[in-house]
Amino acid sequence: MVKPCREKVLQQDNLYCVFDEEKIPDFSPEMLGEDYWLRHKTVDGTARGRGTTWFVSHNKQQWVLRHYYRGGLIGKFNKDSYWFTGQNNTRAAREYSLLLTLEQLGLPAPQPVAYRVIRKGLFYRADLLSTRIKDAEDLVGILSRKPLDEALWPEIGATIRRFHDHGIYHHDLNIHNILLDQQSRVFLIDFDRGEQRTVADSWQQANMERLLRSFRKELNKIPGFHWREEHWQLLQQGYLKKT
User: Fold this and answer.
1) Do residues 43 and 75 both lie within one domain?
2) Which of 2, 57, 120, 163 has its CA 20 to 30 A from that of 40?
3) Which GO terms describe its biological process (predicted)?
4) CA–CA separation, 143 and 219 (whole Å)
């Protein structure tokens, strides 16, 4: 059942924000920047990737704040500006919309809270707030310390299959973006450049091959990494099992 729309729009000159008024009734555009949370001393931690991801708390809720950064060669001389082709085409708007779809489908992923787009001429910069998966750790961190219970590998595969069966394409499906919480529940995160597609074997298979490459990459990079090729077969069993 599709939930009623809770999204509100705030627009001021070159600033455009969308927020969920149930999750953040006291919304301010400043909340989409780390300075706000640092000033209020409500930063719970950070993670480093292409940029810094900020973990923040507000009204007993835990959120993740992420600024959109460019990668690859272009990111070396243009770190965070994108060509503006319409509000709905911005990276933040597209990810927010997809996270809302995942929430409505009941899939295990972060929920959208708010986003902002700041235009400057023909370009824009953007930020996203989403819910934080409580007491969860990514597979890289877990497997760097200990092996997984073998029963969890099919569960990871089955969870990915749930997304794929709804046509959810994850642009960067790797083991940094698969989390397990303390109840061993599986979540997928970071849906930047993801989308809902027609269900088809071609992109699904490419998604899984990307995931397999990420396991092999970390195996070669991290001493004592607790992953073997037979674990992939267990994951595949869960992925291919009919539900």
Assistant:
1) yes
2) 120
3) lipopolysaccharide core region biosynthetic process
4) 10
Total count of domains within the chain: 2
Measured over the CA atoms of residue 25, residue 93, residue 2 and residue 63, the dihedral's sign is negative
Query: How far from chain centre, in Å, is Cα 240?
Result: 24
Which uninterrupted H or E stretch holds 105? helix 91-105
Tell which residue, 230, 234, 242, has the closest CA to residue 155: 234
Catalytic one of 149, 172, 190, 201: 172
Q: Could you confirm whether 172 is annotated as catalytic?
A: yes
Six-digit token string for 230: 């037979």
Residue 146 DSSP SS3 = coil
| Domain termination site, one of 103, 131, 159 | 131
Exposed, middle or buried: residue 99 (CB in 10 Å: 0-12, 13-18, 19+)? buried
Model confidence at 1, in pLDDT bands (50, 70, 90)?
very low
Q: Are residues 123 and 142 in the same domain?
A: no
